[in-house]
């Protein structure tokens, strides 16, 4: 019995341990995105920003509008009215049951940006939330780049700084320490204010990151709850099994 209890405790603690994605930012320190996929208002805001600012280029090929509506606590009518801007082949606004694709041609966009905008269905898992959050914060003016901006987290990225009106524009300032092996220390400084304060902007990109984290694994919203019930059931079942075993073996000993 003692061994069994230890086993159950071990399974419980293992299930409670969360895995954090290890994303490399080419030596750049990533900021903690502090996302919470159970924060529905944040997911709703994130979805709104995503369809307005990102979906022109990026699709979510594995998500459907109506599934998103259900998970985000919205009705299909609300989603159809406020969050669907994509159109089908006949030019009609998409229905809530379709996948969140867009009409962007991969070939053409590769010519425009040097790289096609990838589908972002799984970016929350491949890059991790801290990477996305830090990336959206790390655009800076760089006249040597075709679009005039560069990114410290994703150097030479082909993506324009689509949120510049909200964040404003940053410049990179580097200072080098004294001595032969001194390392360079760089900082991004806001040189042109946007329509949002830095605090508001951070919240906005946290909401977008939260939304992309949810999109990467929608089942997670419910999976963790099922897990807790399963473990509770196993604990209760273990007690029943123990007493049953005692009852059966009573006459043998
Ligand atoms: C004008 C088109 C365009 C818009 C709008 C746009 N992006 Fe991008 N994005 C790109 C392109 C192009 C790339 C590929 C960059 C590369 O590989 O050099 C990219 C890459 C990315 C990546 C990196 C993906 C990876 O794993 O390499 C993320 C994350 C991303 N975009 C998020 C966003 C978010 C969030 C928004 C909305 C706020 C957005 N993008 C809006 C064009 C766009």
Automatic annotation (TrEMBL):
<keyword id="KW-0732">Signal</keyword>
<feature type="binding site" description="covalent">
    <location>
        <position position="58"/>
    </location>
    <ligand>
        <name>heme c</name>
    </ligand>
</feature>
<keyword id="KW-0472">Membrane</keyword>
<keyword id="KW-0479">Metal-binding</keyword>
<dbReference type="GO" id="GO:0016020">
    <property type="term" value="C:membrane"/>
</dbReference>
<dbReference type="GO" id="GO:0009055">
    <property type="term" value="F:electron transfer activity"/>
</dbReference>
<keyword id="KW-0812">Transmembrane</keyword>
<dbReference type="InterPro" id="IPR036909">
    <property type="entry name" value="Cyt_c-like_dom_sf"/>
</dbReference>
<dbReference type="GO" id="GO:0020037">
    <property type="term" value="F:heme binding"/>
</dbReference>
<protein>
    <submittedName>
        <fullName>Cytochrome c1</fullName>
    </submittedName>
</protein>
<keyword id="KW-0408">Iron</keyword>
<dbReference type="Pfam" id="PF02167">
    <property type="entry name" value="Cytochrom_C1"/>
</dbReference>
<feature type="transmembrane region" description="Helical">
    <location>
        <begin position="226"/>
        <end position="244"/>
    </location>
</feature>
<feature type="binding site" description="covalent">
    <location>
        <position position="57"/>
    </location>
    <ligand>
        <name>heme c</name>
    </ligand>
</feature>
<feature type="binding site" description="covalent">
    <location>
        <position position="54"/>
    </location>
    <ligand>
        <name>heme c</name>
    </ligand>
</feature>
<feature type="domain" description="Cytochrome c">
    <location>
        <begin position="41"/>
        <end position="219"/>
    </location>
</feature>
<keyword id="KW-0349">Heme</keyword>
<dbReference type="InterPro" id="IPR009056">
    <property type="entry name" value="Cyt_c-like_dom"/>
</dbReference>
<keyword id="KW-1133">Transmembrane helix</keyword>
<dbReference type="GO" id="GO:0046872">
    <property type="term" value="F:metal ion binding"/>
</dbReference>
<dbReference type="InterPro" id="IPR002326">
    <property type="entry name" value="Cyt_c1"/>
</dbReference>
<feature type="signal peptide">
    <location>
        <begin position="1"/>
        <end position="23"/>
    </location>
</feature>
